Amino acid sequence: MDLQRFERNKQLAQSLKGGVIMDVTNPEQAKIAEAAGAVAVMALERVPSDIRKQGGVARMSDPKMIKGIQEAVSIPVMAKARIGHIAEAQILEALGIDYIDESEVLTPADDAYHLNKFDFKVPFVCGARNIGEALRRIGEGASMIRTKGEAGTGNVVEAVRHMRTVMADIRRLQNMPAEELMTFAKDNGAPYDLVVEVAKTGKLPVVNFAAGGIATPADAALMMQLGSEGIFVGSGIFKSSNPEKMARAIVKATAYYNDPDVLAEVSEGLGEAMRGIELSEIAPEDRMAQRGW
Amino acid sequence: MKPVTIGVLSYQGTVIEHIKALSQLEGVTPMEVKTLPALQEVDGLILPGGESTTIAKLLNIFGLMEPLRQRILDGMPVWGTCAGEILLAGEILGEQPHLGVMDFAVRRNAYGRQIDSFTQYAPIQGISETPVELVFIRAPWIESVGEKAQVICRVNGHAVAARQDNMLATSFHPEFTRDLTVHRWFARQVEQHKYQ
Q1: What is the ipTM score, two decimals?
Q2: Which of A4, A11, A17 sits opposite B137 (nearest CB)?
Q3: Which of A137, A154, A254, B164 could disulfide-pair with A274, CB 3.0 to 4.6 Å?
Q4: Number of inter-chain CB pairs under 8 A, A vs B
Q5: pTM (2 decimals)?
Q6: Which chain A residues have a beta carbon less than 8 Å from that of B53?
Q7: What DSSP element (H or E) covers A71?
Q8: How confident is the model at residue A64 (pLDDT cuts 50, 70, 90)?
Q9: Residue of B nearest to A77 (CA)
Q10: Residue ranges with strand state E in chain B
């Protein structure tokens, strides 16, 4: 990935701003997502809540299933590769996927290193819990960041924590005198040049979406109000009792996140949201957000 | 320049990029537009880059599609970039048109997938004789053009910008570059229309 391509990859993420990216497991779901107004779909074999329930090793999806989804819709198609799995990412690039999510939702393939995303032409989105993690991923070539949250729980609390942490770090950096930036970089394990850039601009160098536990239109609006630039919904749509209606409602709530009248209207009569999990019920070693280095 | 208010349809997409570009122009007050009162207030409107299906969906759901079409037909200057070009097109290959106000047919994702996105330099007839930076992100092109519209930019043999009366459509995203040429040109069109 040369610098010009890195720019264009960041720009695709910019065009997705204010939109909702939905997890889909087959072409029918992809069409429902597109018809509901999704800006992109994430093709995967099992949504995170099923991965959590069924256990086992979660890997990249079958290329045949990904191709089926690519043929079904005209919006961008994303897919997940395991953390550090160079070959899975190469396969997804060969399929002409529009964005690769190097995702903690899948079982990591490497327990020390992430992908060098500059080795690829295709853009990458990566999860982050704090600014150090976000800037390490960008330093490796990610052109889009999302909060990790805690995928498959339908519980927004971790996404809120991660978004608030990143935003607080940015505000702190903006007020920091130049001589403190190097120590900040050291303490947070972040590339120094990117720390300097954030301190100067007051924002991450790439688009930052919210993900991991968003289950209702109100959750989406909350994340947007906290500074998120768009929304990933995983299990929240196709694990609800009325996916079409839920999908449309989350799209509307994301676009009108600061209009309570619209939010009240779209939240009405959606049926049951996905059944959530209280975070204390999940053992620390089972938390997906812990994956990533 | 005399004062004008230029709106950016702000459901989704490259809204902030357009607002930032507009805010660098003297006399221009940029404004986000996603309600009817806001739409009635602006002197001109930009339809940003993004996903045209998403933006069209929201225009329909929130009842802005018809009022917007009417304002355009009444002469309000409008400029669509990428997804915005698709919204303006009279025909979309394989799909129903949205605003359908410009006399050309557009092909979505004409260049392929993200890996095929690219940057080029070319002049834009009537706007800039010197080549300007053109950024194409999963871009559409203009497949064929009717009598009322005029192609004003070509790249690699494909039409990528067109004008028709008060309307401008570009397959590329000037809002992603530092070059304000097209924004400045559009602001002048808005000024002329307002103070004619």
Answers
A1: 0.94
A2: A11
A3: A154
A4: 103
A5: 0.96
A6: 34, 37, 74-75
A7: helix A63-72
A8: very high
A9: B113
A10: 4-9, 28-33, 44-47, 78-81, 89-92, 102-107, 118-124, 128-136, 141-145, 150-155, 158-164, 167-170
